[in-house]
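Batch manifest, entry 17 of 40.
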Amino acid sequence: MGHEVEIVRFDPQPVASVRLTIHRDELGSALEEVLPDIIEQLNREGVEATGPPFTRFHNSEGTNLEIEAGLPVGTRVAGGGRVRASELPGGEAATIWHVGSYATIGESFGRLSSWFAKSHKTQGDGPWEVYVTDPRMEPDPDHWQTQIIWPIGEGEPDSEEGETPRAPEWRASSRRRAATADSAEEE
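Output type: structure tokens
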């Protein structure tokens, strides 16, 4: 499992999820907050999750993020409370594996953004992260595995020739926080 970008074709995936708007600093706690509600709803419906949790990024405005956090399922759920039936899109997507702390995931988003620019591909809407490693089962963040999936959009990219691609603003901030923490440790 490397840091290379791969193109993968996905089938649409039914999910049970919660969509919410949060401050980008609350991203880590948002999944912890909604997963118990989703699991409770799945238990009520007798439906099992078919894979690890994910977070999909729908929109960012300033320091706020509109996210969808959830679990994949084998069949469409009825939903209840704030848990809704939804779907991760099918089609071609660029994927990259991030191994390590969530604080450094912005670096992997940066590599993925660079790949889009170099490959002259358009970044589609709504990238998502799949949290393959459960931090409760593997406490060492150096071993955490996260798959980043970014749909490939239609048409030509919007970026200008020679423009330096950047990680999404909301993930670049993760990199800045990690760098600040590293600097503080060195002092």
